[in-house]
Amino acid sequence: MDTKKFKILIVEDNVHDADPIIEILERESYEIDHIQNGTYALEFVKTNYFDLILLDIGLPEGNKYGFEVLVGIKTIPNIADIPVIFLTGLKDAENIKEGFEYGGADYITKPFLSEELLARVKTQLELKSQREELKVKNAKLKVKVNERTKQLEETLQELKLANKELKGLDIAKNNFLKIISHELRTPLTGIVGASEFLNTTLADDNEFGELVEMLKTSVDRLERFSKTALLITQLQTNQIYLKESVELDKLIKECITDNTESSQKKNITIIEEIIENNVIIEVERSLIKWALNSIIDNAIKYSDNNIIKIRLIVKNNYPTIECYDNGIGFSDKAIQNLFKPFSMGESHYDNNFGLSLKAVKHIMDVHNGEVIIYNNIRKGACVSLVFNN
Questions:
Q1: Which residues contact 103 (CB under 8 A, 6 or more apart)?
Q2: Pairwise CA distance, residues 10 & 320, whole Å
Q3: Exposed/middle/buried for 306, CB within 10 Å: 0-12, 13-18, 19+?
Q4: Three-state SS for 315?
């Protein structure tokens, strides 16, 4: 510690007591001021800076006047932090206790040893330096915290604004999808009816039968796309759906019946495997039925002269519907993009199923469920609907 940096004030009325203290401290290169009067000392410290004060408790102005000077020092804001070592010739422990209560940092009993004086002075100066250093660091830290807080507040405001804009864009997107879906469905109703009529009347016509079949296939595909897009829009707008108790084994039978005609056309047999009976869940029935029908329909499209198995089990207390097919399976690229609508690359299903699978995922999200998809070891794939509610 560089002692030349420190200024010490000695408040001692007795010159004979003060001189040895001054001599000892000056040998250590401390800068010393000596005042004999307590009242003057209080005024002096207001305009002069000191690192430490040595204060005689037994000043002559009055009984315990030294304590009054100590209290006065501690009540002046700009000097209250200066450590005060009180000097006392009294061996009464009560006076020492009182000195600490009034704010004294330490005490020295007269007569004293020079080693004791230097040790106590050095200790208080080091503590004061550490407090000041900590105070400076705290001030710098406070500035940094305030700057960081301001930056975070600005970032938060930016995020709020961006979130507001995103919500606006999301609303605009949903409104756009609604308009597109409805605008598609209106003319589609007439086109579907016309294509059905043409298919019925010209199916056996050698010249136009093939064209009519192509027209019907395209119209059916466009209708499915329109309905799927509208369904996704409804799911994304967080519409409230009415849940009811649904027996999954009965729902599976209904979906198999719904797909019987299309499966028979391809010589595909749909079998059910009910491992758990009487499994009842609380769901929006029409949505779950749409999801399962969509999965079965696409399994049929990519299976030929084979079997599709619909399995109902309970895994880890979660009811699960599994749909196994023996089709071409998913490519690795398709697996990575299964839940992205309009994703590029190969797919297990036709081009519309990127959108259909997105709708299935939304439906399961609404019901706090999961969609799990993987390829079978030998051939084909499995799509599972897991109900976590």
A1: 70, 71, 73, 74, 84
A2: 88
A3: middle
A4: strand
Q: Name residue, tokens 């409804």.
A: 234
Q: Which of 15, 215, 183, 23 is nearest to 118 (CA)?
A: 23
One DSSP character per residue, 135-161 reads: HHHHHHHHHHHHHHHHHHHHHHHHHHH
Kindly give the confidence (pLDDT) of every residue in the chain, 389 residues in length, as a single tens digit, with 9 standing for 90 and above: 554 579 999 998 888 889 999 999 999 989 999 999 888 988 899 889 899 999 988 776 655 678 888 888 888 888 888 999 988 876 666 778 888 888 899 988 888 889 999 999 999 999 998 988 898 899 899 999 999 999 999 889 989 888 888 888 777 776 776 676 666 666 666 676 666 666 677 666 666 666 766 776 776 666 666 667 667 666 666 665 678 999 999 999 999 999 999 999 889 999 999 988 889 999 989 899 999 999 998 888 888 768 999 999 998 889 999 999 988 887 777 777 666 654 443 444 444 445 678 888 888 888 889 999 888 887 888 999 999 86
Q: What angle do CA 26, 30, 32 make, to 5 degrees?
A: 75
Residue whose token pair is 């056996």: 204
Side-chain half-sphere CA neighbours of 111 within 13 A:
4
pTM, two decimal places:
0.49
